[in-house]
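ingest -> fold -> write
write: protein_1
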Amino acid sequence: MSISGKNLIAGEWSGDFTKGFSATNAVKNEPMPEVFADASETEVEQAIARAHQAFASYSQLPAVQRAKFLRTIGEQIVALGDELVEMACAETGLPAMRIQGERGRTVGQLGLFADLLEQGEYQGVFDAADAERQPLPKPDTRLGYLPLGVVGVFAASNFPLAFSTAGGDTASALAAGCPVVMKAHAAHPGTAELVAQAISKAIELCDIDAGVFSLIQGKNYAIASQIVTHPMVKAVGFTGSERVGMILQQQINQRPEPIPFYGELGSVNPQFIMADKLATEASTLAENLVASLMMGQGQFCTSPGIWSYVKSVDTPVFEQAASAAIAATEAGVMLTPAMAESYKKTVASWQSIDGVELLAQGQSGVAHFTQAALFVTDLTTFKANTVLQEEVFGPCALILRLQDEQELAEFIGLLKGNLTAAIHATDKDMAQSRTVALSVAHKVGRLIYNQMPTGVEVCASMNHGGPFPASTDLRTTSVGSEAIKRFQRPICYQNMPNELLPQLLRS
């Protein structure tokens, strides 16, 4: 397929290249040849209006037909073949194996929701009538779920497939019966267009209203504001920085009609290393943490950013092993030059903080590549410098040496909300692990034992969210079968005749 550089507006490709932009080849650090059009205010308006029109028919589409649509999208994504992989690799600098795996996850997510729709997983709750109940008879009540309406989705920078055009937010919204207006990420517009072409083909094959999906390209910040404030948009899914997320949240809060904003904004994913684990497996654990940190050049939302333990005679063994592993890492490319520059500035600023020591750095490389960095500090310095408590997007980790159990409890109290935390322990550490787990559970959406935080299983029991700023709604997940509930609302039907009930609620 060829890249048009245009926006997909309800089945039609359009775009004015007067204000066009290009992505950057992340590895070569040079502009890519494709030019993309900044969407106009009119095009965004058309996309939202057509999505609103499509909602009338799409929301009534039987579950089995929505399932077929989701599967067809997956088939069309696979049919893109190597072209999709090559484009995504060029735009992000991520290796082909990573993109291939992410493509599999994207198709798998679509298939998961298709399976659940076919199985009647979301059919609702039935409470039968009881005419004999005293003092009043009980009516027949049935709890069902209605799609919210048009959903605005913002693609993630670090997952060009699984959290972008046909990613988890799009898949769960379409599964719920909601049309999607997708704002592509400006770092990988070519990848976004290819996937949009696949979705457009699936719409055609399944004979669905083309307004059910539109792709908006552009670097113009006004596009985001127009989407989140538009009265026809009824929910927003966002993955990005805390700064941008809070701007969008503020704009949503000023709407006459409040709508849900499901934002994933940042996480340091603290690691808690217990005493016996440190004494018996220091070197292995250090190497595993470095390997987890380096996945995607530290650009996973679940990357382990802070490693904590109570100091002991085993501390030097762990730190030496971690330093050696960091020093052996090769310099790598980040998703965009701006992200690489921001990372380098953060690492440089940390080196100027009194009480913070740079333990090790990775190997140097091409000028626009980044080196891994491992720092160490104490609780007093950590408390005094809030910058150390924020997520660093890139291959950087901070070791926090604690003096005793009291400092450990104080550190947990300082933590903001996180997507994950992990406890690394042996059976001998069970008492201490229990104390940590009880406290840390209130700070995270997923608590892990003796495994790394990177990697998210797409299944019914997964929760990918957490207290702010990990996400803007700690009651929801953006991964797994429960993600669909973000784009539905409950409705109770009381004493309704069968003919007036939705299919799944009929006797």
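write: protein_2
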Amino acid sequence: MQPSLSVSPVWRRPVSPIACRFAEGTVDLVVVGAGYQGLSTALHAARAGLSVQVIEAGDIGTGASGVNGGQVIPGLKQDPELLITLFGDEDGKQLTRFAARTADVVFDLIARERLDVEHMRCGWIQAAHTEAALQAAMQRNRQWRAQGADVALLNQAEIALLIGSEGYRGGFLDRRAGVVNPLALVHELARIATEAGADLATRDPVTSLVRDGTSWRVGTRSGRSLRARKVLLATNAYSGLLSPKLARSLVWLHSFQIATEPLPPEFDTILPGRHAVSDSRRILVYYRRSPDGRLVLGGRGSMRPPRTAEDWVHLERALLRLYPMLSNVAISHRWFGRVAMTPDHLPHLHEPEPGLLMVAGCQGRGIGLMVSLGEPIAHYVATGDPGMLPLPISPLHGIPLNRFRRIGIAAHVAWYRLLDGLER
């Protein structure tokens, strides 16, 4: 494949400017971070009549919300029966119902608000590369069918036809899922949140959060300061020095992605139904077709920021393993972003001090999960009633020896890649 110097996502496009405003005095809610979680919460809080200030360290979409793979997948990593085991009958069923609707929330929002977001609700396939993975897909299909979800189990012939690639034993098809232009979605969320009355400031990182009586004092690098009755720290993998304890509770990774040039018509057998796909490998890859016909593929990358195009070679190898006929198709775009995972692969909701909220951990479900969390979090901020929260408020615990995580993760990734290679 021919080299490319582009390190921007394929869906970069001009967006309408959003007026940036900074409130003065005291507001009901300060949201730190203008990603899906922060902007969705700001939108619902503003529409509930709260005064809201959103503060973003960079530009809209420069974090994970603008550089992810665009797959909108309902559910969580864990299936319904395990969620009920972990959280109990009542809370587990409530979380399952919430998780089942996350894709609905995103696509209904796009339609209801007439958002300028390219999207296709064409389903998601979890492709099983081993017999054990196929058995897991069978269990997932059984459990979600019991919940009334529009899902199906694929055999080897069916998945080969839908993906356009041989080698998978079968898979799980979730027709509730789809894909969006992730950058357009976060920009449109910013637009409707500000139109609802939320103030938004960009390129001004929050540098201090101090509890002061019954409220919080929030300071930024530019010297701005205001008071807030409640604060939502919606920074996830980018929490850093602002909340070291939150940062120590997470494992952050780099997600790398590539996109080909638009594929010519002779390759229309590749994802002909435009399904999004993730495979079952330990170091999985995920891929889809873009609206203009490119193949977009992503997966884990190095723990350090990339330096040259060689840092994406492992994805080019994966692409050719799936579709060897694309050996002469150029890679036009390469990019990466930081994502956060939790040790138990569940999203976590914390309130370590009164009025300071934070949610972290997406595990590949970030678009649907974080957009959907906006309304219940806003309700909790407005009323203090946790009844709508789909997750329990849990203690914030750091991971032991977290500062050595980069070494450990790199070793695990190398080992898992070896195991995945042996299973071909």
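write: annotation protein_2
The chain has two domains: 26-123+176-404, 124-175.
DSSP finds twelve helices and 19 strands in the chain.
pipeline exit 0
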